[in-house]
Every structure is written in C-alpha cells, then in structure tokens.
Amino acid sequence: MVGKWHLGFYKKECLPTRRGFDTYLGSLTGSMNYYTYESCDGPSLCGFDLHEGELVAWRHKGKYSTHLYTQRVRKILAAHDPLSQPLFIFLSFQAVHTPLQCPQEYIHPYKELENIARRKYAAMVSIVDEAVRNITYALRKYGYYQNSVLIFSTDNGGQPLSGGSNWPLRGRKGTYWEGGVRGLGFVHSPLLRKKRRVSKALVHITDWYPTLVGLAGGNESLTEGVDGHNVWAAISEGKESPRFEILHNIDPLYNYARTGSLQKGFGIWNTAIQASIRAGDWKLLTGDPGYGDWIPPPILPGFPREYWTLERHIKPRKSVWLFNVSGDPYERFDLSEQRPDVVKELLARLVYYNRTAVPVRYPSEDPQADPQLNGGAWGPWMGDEEEEKWATVYKKENMEWKRKFKMFKSRSFFRRLNTRMMSNKI
C-alpha cells in the first residue's frame, strides 16, 4: 500500500502491514503538509506523519507527496515479476485534500482562474493526472498492462470551501446529500468487454473486495457473508448490478434533529437520528443530513460570500426526505409526503441494519497519543493489555427496535414501485 491510511493506528495491530499489506509507505492521519509531513490535531498537537513499513520515514521529508507516492508505485512495479503471482497495489493519494499545496510550475497554466483556491485545486488535480499517466506507462513498460485493471475512485464529495465542486449535485463533503456520497470514477483495463461507455450500475466501496478477489483468481468462497458483491459483470459487460441497496450511514452520536421523533418515523424509527439509505431508485434521509444547498462552482474571486447564497435552501426544517435519485439526482423534489409507503419501507430497512450494528465506541482523547511523547511523530501508543479493558465498556443491544421490527420483502416491493414510478413519469 502507498499513501493515506486514516483507518486508525492506536496500536500496531491497526497498521497497514498488520492488515494484509506486505509493504507500506504513507501517512496514518487524515491530513498533513505535502512537503514537511507535519500533521496537526488542533493548533498545539502536531507531529511528523510519514511511515515506511512500521518505521517513521524521516528521510523523505521535503518531497512532494504525490510525486513521492508515484515514484514508490513505479519502484514496486519494476521490482515485481508480473508472471510470478498477482499484484495488488492500493494507492491512496493525499491529493486533492487540504492544505492546497503544489509546485509553482503546475499553477501557472491556471493563472486565468480568478479564485485562488480553485486555481491551486486545478493544479493539484493536474499532478494527479500526471501520476496516473506515469503509473500507466510503468504498467506497460514492466509487462503488467495487458492483464491489469486500473480503478480510479474517490472517498467522498468535494469541499467547495477548498476549491472543490459538486455542482449541480446538492450538498458537499461530510453530508449525506448526493454531493457528499456520490463518487465519480473510472475503470480502465484491456480485460473490459464493453469499453468507452458510462455505467450507471449501483456500486458501493465494499464491492471492490469480492470483485478484485474474483478477478485475481482467488477463493471467492472466502468473500461469502461480506457486505460486498462481485460487480465485474456489471462493469465489464454492462449487466445489471447485483447490488440493489446501499446503507449510507446510521450515526447515533450526531446531533439529533430537533424536528425529528419516533412518531414521525411510524413508531419504528426516530427520525431525529442522522441516517440515509438507498434502495433501487429511492433514497431516504433522516435527522440532519448536513449542509444541503446547491453550491455553484467556486470560480469567482469573491467566493463564497454572496455567491454562496445564490441557491440558499430556506424551506422549513424537516427530519425526513425521500428522493427518486435516478430521475432526480440533484435532490430537488422531495417525495416523502406523496409516498409515505416508500418512506415506511425504507425506515424498516434502517431498523433492520441497526439491529446488527456494532455498538459505537468513541472514547475521549488520549493524552498518550501526543506525538511529543513518541519522538515527535504520530504512531501507535497503546499496547494490547490496555485494549482489553474496553471489551465490556460499550456493550449494548437495542431490544426496543428488535421487538418492533418485522422483516419486509423489500426487493420485489421496490421493483414494483420503480416500475410504476417510471411509467407515471413522476
């Protein structure tokens, strides 16, 4: 693995090299300086964050991260024999996350862009484009290309305050609107049967694992019971995706919506809880989904200020929304009042998923994590013996929802609804 981890590191068992990766070069936290690799959690808690294997990689300080990560991938490709065994590389670029930093020569082509953040953002995207080109060239040079699959994807929507844009989708990074959860991407491979086309198949990040195991000739029985599906036929041949439903999230800790209640959730779901689910063409949101405006691209120098309010969402606050996101991907037409039957069905699916949810473990900040106590760098600070005390702290079950929930046969239900919706052109 090369690049950003951001999946926890409080003990060594959480590191990439303990989670299936043979080698690792990258950062453990969520954001850092692209040159110095300094990462801060607040104004006073800062430390170096670049690791090679399980050691701190001080020697790479000063190298621009996108270039460094690209060079490492090319080095891996040069050293591996493509005919010996399959090779999986997960490259998680830091770009184009904040802070907006890049070499000056990449900014010059975008000098006509008046918005400074957008200018830097475009330059950083250009460096990623260059990296993809160089890695693709390495795949060809070292004999991988004809039997390779290159997947380019994202983890969330853009942040308009930092040069990004999700227009004309609604919302932004950190929200449950389509601007926050709909990820763009592409798959490039000589193995694709139908090339140069746009796929609208429903795919979730959990689908990549069983899909790649199948492509690599792995034991697919080991993927039974996981959340993902093998979606290669949908991607390569244009067949229907085996995925019908996506649980975007259920967050019981987020601020409860003041207008939500169990009564508004038909007595089975408290609509004050932040949650979102999609089934077929339908998408339901409850609680506070996050900032819900349609934000124009940040191209003017005065952004955001007055420009931000061009499409200010000023309707009364709610706690339930329903959209047909196939016909209305911009989420402009709320159908929750017209289709209470669909709302109730999707609320029941939230109840179903919540029954098997792992209890939330969100401990308070641990002062022992301070990088200054660990040689000035971020890294694991807790041993296994300290971990054992947490085993019984967050144990709980929600028996109330278990009693009230009754499993619906939703797949056929939603297919019938979708057919009627399309015929009525609602």
TrEMBL record:
GO MF terms, alphabetically ordered: metal ion binding; sulfuric ester hydrolase activity
| InterPro entries in UniProt | Alkaline_phosphatase_core_sf, ARSB, Sulfatase_N
According to the entry, every stretch annotated as the Sulfatase N-terminal domain falls at 1-217
- Pfam families found in the cross-reference section: Sulfatase
Task: Name what cofactor the protein needs.
Answer: Ca(2+)
Which of UniProt's keywords are assigned here? Answer: Calcium, Glycoprotein, Metal-binding
Similarity comment text for this entry: Belongs to the sulfatase family.
Q: What is this protein called?
A: Arylsulfatase family member I
Upper classification of the organism: Eukaryota, Metazoa, Chordata, Craniata, Vertebrata
